[in-house]
Amino acid sequence: MEPTTLTVLVVTASILGSVAVDVGVNTVQNWYDTFYQDAFWGNRKNSPELEAQLAKEEAEINRLIRESDAVNGAVPRL
Predict the structure, then answer these.
(1) pTM
(2) Tell me: the pLDDT tens digits for 3-37?
């Protein structure tokens, strides 16, 4: 086998292997999106108390981030 042919074979196998891994990862992500999220998270109950608690926690996190940015001299985010 010529060195050029061997090089082409190795490069082709590498590219095909990368494509195969990419397709496999996309398949797993699609399975997660369609099965796991829809089956479990789509059916959870939303209570007003939990929504209010979540909004309060998110506001606290945003406040802490803004304070940290002010202390570190970062440009404020909008």
Answers:
(1) 0.44
(2) 889 999 999 999 999 999 999 999 998 888 888 77
Could you give the CA distance from residue 36 to residue 52 in angstroms, rounded to a whole number? Answer: 26
69 neighbors 76 (Cβ within 8 angstroms): yes
Amino acid at 40: F
Q: How far is CA 12 from CA 15, 16, 36, 41, 42, in A?
A: 5, 6, 35, 41, 42
For the segment 32-76, what is each residue's pLDDT rounded down to a tens digit? 888 877 777 666 677 889 889 999 999 999 999 888 877 777 665
Helices (H), 32-76: 38-40, 48-72
CA distance linking residue 19 with residue 78, whole number of Å:
39
Helix, strand or coil for residue 2? coil
The residue type of 74 is A
